[in-house]
Amino acid sequence: MNGIAPTALRPSFYEPVAGSPREDLLRAYREFLERRNGTMDFTTGFSRREEWLREAAGWEGRFTGPVDGEGFNRAYESFDAVRGLTPPMVALLTFVKANAGEAYGVEVLTRERHQRHDAPELFHQVERLVAYEETYHTRILIGATQHFGVEVEGAWRPPLPLRLLIGTLVHAPGLFFHPVLLAAEVSGVFSFNWMLRRVGEIFRDEPAVRESMEQRLIEILVDEVGHVAFNRMAVGPVGLSTARHLAGVVLRGVMGSTPEYRALGMDENELRKLDTFDLHQLPEEVLRRSYFV
Q: Quick one: pLDDT at residue 3?
């Protein structure tokens, strides 16, 4: 079951969830996750995701432009070094770093939330599945390096402001926690969708590389739409309104921790588009494959 209504109805990130009781919606979303992910084992991984990654590892296509592996890793360590990179290398760097902050936040938040057990059992189960999906996003994105012959050196260190924000959020009560998380998910959908369009421009003359990078972003967008739906189930009208107002704040925080977006053209004019961004602006494939209520 796909939870998205016909696009003509223009469902919104910020409209109240209507229809079935929350427990029914959660069961439907869990069934969707089972179909999408296959066997969901937190030790061995999600079977269909592992299959997808193995298939993607065999995708052909080699970037034919100049590749500066040393410069790439210098910029991975310090954004100040990004100035010497070509747009394709900055795009790859953004791929590698785009989900790093979210992955860090999910790891910290999940650890704390799972210790608290302050949610109903079904909600808690789905929350764990959603968090585990995020671990695949990092692997999906970093897999794009295979087309450039680049190996990422070292581990990304989240900047202090991001660590402070997440450290504060983990102790927030549920009434505040999910509106902020919803704002973060909407911000993520916006930035990944923006990146999808930008990749099409930067790699227009590299069809195999472009298709690989686009498919990676589409896989993540399908997940993220479901994560938005899940967090919508956890908030009421006030929470939805709060999320709408916080989404821009979160997005600017993301731009601060991943300034590579700005290097690719995410300027103030682009950022302001978040104010009118909504579900119907996503690609048809994402809408067709996603779960949304």
A: 54
- What is the C-alpha separation between 33 and 290, in angstroms, rounded? 10
pLDDT of residue 91: 95
Ordered DSSP codes for the chain: ---PPPGGG---SSSPP-SS-HHHHHHHHHHHHHHHH-SEETTTEEHHHHHHHHHHHT------S---HHHHHHHHH-GGGGGGS-HHHHHHHHHHHHTHHHHHHHHHHHHHHHHH--S-HHHHHHHHHHHHHHHHHHHHHHGGGGGTT----S-----HHHHHHHHHHTTS-HHHHHHHHHHHHHHHHHHHHHHHHHHHHHTTT-HHHHHHHHHHHHHHHHHHHHHHHHHHHT--HHHHHHHHHHHHHHHHHHHHH-THHHHTT--HHHHHGGGG--GGGS-HHHHHH----
Q: How far apart are CA 96 and CA 206, in angstroms?
A: 19
Q: Find, among 206, 207, 220, 208, the residue nearest to 283 by Cα.
A: 220
Residue 220 pLDDT > 90, yes or no?
A: yes
pLDDT tens digit sequence for 87-137: 999 999 999 888 766 666 666 666 665 555 555 689 989 998 998 998 899
Strand pairing class (45-46; 40-41): antiparallel
pLDDT single digits (tens) 185-198? 999 999 999 999 99
Identity of the residue numbered 262: R
Query: Hunting for tokens 């998380």 — which residue is that?
Result: 181
Reported pTM:
0.90
Give the pair of three-digit tokens for residue 156.
């990304």
Distance CA 159, CA 229 (A): 29
Output the pLDDT for position 1: 44
Residue 19 pLDDT:
77
Tell me if 149 sits within 8 A of 69, measured CB to CB: yes
Sole residue written with tokens 């003359």: 205
